[in-house]
Design a protein that fits this description.
The protein contains 15 helices and 17 strands. The chain has helices at 6-11, 20-23, 33-41, 54-69, 115-128, 166-171, 182-186, 196-205, 221-233, 237-249, 261-264, 306-317, 330-336, 343-349, 411-422; strands at residues 26-27, 75-82, 85-96, 101-102, 109-110, 150-151, 157-158, 271-273, 279-281, 303-304, 321-322, 325-326, 353-356, 360-363, 377-381, 385-390, 395-400. Strands 1, 2, 3, 4, 13, 14, 15, 16 and 17 form a nine-stranded antiparallel sheet that branches. A two-stranded antiparallel sheet has the order 5-10. The longest helix is centred in the first third of the chain and has 16 residues, at 54-69.
Length: 425
């Protein structure tokens, strides 16, 4: 099958016409090796047996089909699990409008910032092994961080009140900025073609936005955590994830790039709306995902399937264990998925969500706009992926599209609301 190249994507400027008969497809789960493994660790269940209405879950599929037909998305894959059993797994639409390749549960999707939670698990596995303490200064392991300065409004800099700690990186209280921030773009801090050494040199050259430990600022911190995993383990980051997380959990399709023709054939295209209606292929950033990047990042970059990320999410819901394989202690996961921000930082951040070491939003109090249990945790990705884990209801919801912006027509809120209404006990 001919694959769209990066240059082809750049040249694409028009919206493809939709064919309703094609996009109304809802694909049943084929009996692939991946599906068989999924069944072993997440056995299928009649929705009613785990407290869901089959009829109402079908409405969720209907919503996804509607958004495909309305040319808001090209396709989607979604899953719902409860009490350790798979109640719902559906795929609609296509991976690519030009090739008309159907979206399936084995489609590879760019999960961007949902990579962060995987990185956090890797780090905390090494924390349990005594490789570091959360309050260790990052400079202990990466000497360049001893040189960071805090930027002042007049353009000068000063020494930080204290060094950045590992906990600061995981909680995004490091003072570092986001990869898409104007200052990082202007200073060319990050590019997938650069080495980790070049990235770190650029990162510490740009002043911190504030003293470490004083404010939540979503940032490049987790890419540094990924490098620290290499320092602590003595293994390349991608190899550590494969050996210690993906292989044990049966996440056979999760990787940083689609290396083979078979994998590239399953790589979905990202789409954005165009004026007047319809969608067109886009590049969120210059990331081909079809070749090994020079800079492998803990913050972004993984490709995954919905069943793979469902296994990862179930491991978290099970407090560190899946299918007889334990990655983390119960107490470690409990610490990772509760709010780790100080009262002062949380008050300044505002809202009803805290932030956990697992790189997740944590619901702290009831929110009329989000009728979920207090303690639910979640995070999303730039290209239209999201997961929610509700420990009280023992429920996991995953929705993945390939869209920019990431939430066309409020698909996330609408899909989740239908699933929540589908719960019957």
């Amino acid at each position: 099958m001919k694959q769209r190249t990066t240059s082809d994507s750049r040249r694409a400027v028009r919206s493809y016409a939709f064919r309703p008969a094609l996009f109304a497809v809802v694909l049943a789960l084929p009996l692939t090796q991946t599906a068989t493994l999924s069944a072993q660790v997440l056995p299928r269940a009649v929705p009613e047996s785990v407290g869901f209405s089959s009829e109402r879950l079908a409405e969720a599929t209907g919503l996804l089909q509607q958004l495909v037909q309305e040319q808001k998305i090209a396709g989607a894959v979604a899953a719902v699990a409860r009490r350790g059993k798979l109640a719902y797994l559906e795929a609609v639409g296509v991976q690519d409008l030009a090739t008309r390749t159907p979206m399936t549960e084995r489609s590879l999707l760019r999960i961007y910032s949902m990579t962060k939670s995987v990185t956090a698990v890797a780090a905390m596995m090494l924390h349990e092994e005594g490789k570091f303490a959360l309050d260790d200064p990052v400079a202990k392991y990466i000497p360049e961080f001893a040189n960071v300065k805090v930027g002042l409004p007049d353009g000068t800099t000063r020494q930080p009140a204290r060094g950045i700690t590992v906990a600061d990186l995981l909680l995004h209280t490091s003072g570092l900025n986001h990869r898409t921030s104007a200052i990082y773009r202007d200073e060319k801090v990050r590019a997938r073609e650069m080495t980790m050494a070049q990235f770190i040199a650029n990162l510490v050259r740009v002043p911190l936005m504030e003293d470490p430990g004083t404010r939540f600022r979503y940032s490049e911190s987790t890419t540094i955590v990924g490098h620290l995993v290499e320092v602590w383990s003595g293994m390349p980051f991608d190899q550590f994830l494969e050996a210690r997380i993906f292989r044990p959990l049966g996440m056979t399709d999760t990787r940083f790039w689609a290396a083979t023709p078979e994998q590239r054939a399953r790589l979905a295209t990202v789409y954005a709306p165009v004026p007047g209606g319809g969608i067109t292929p886009v590049e969120i950033e210059t990331v081909p995902f079809s070749e090994r990047p020079t800079l492998i990042e803990g913050a972004v970059g993984l490709l995954a399937t919905v069943p793979d990320y469902l296994r990862f999410s179930q491991m978290l819901l099970n407090k560190g264990e899946l299918g007889g394989i334990r990655l983390l202690k119960t107490s470690t996961v409990e610490a990772m998925v509760r709010n780790g921000l100080s009262d002062a930082i949380q008050q300044a951040r505002g809202g009803s969500n805290g932030w956990g070491l697992a790189n997740v939003n944590v619901l702290l109090r009831a929110n009329p706009n989000n009728p979920a249990s207090v303690g639910e945790y979640s995070w999303d990705g730039t290209a239209g992926t999201i997961f929610w884990v509700d420990p009280v209801q023992e429920t996991i919801i995953i929705l993945m599209t390939q869209s920019a912006p990431s939430n066309p027509d409020q698909i996330r809120q609408r899909f989740k609301a239908i699933v929540q209404r589908a719960r019957i006990d």
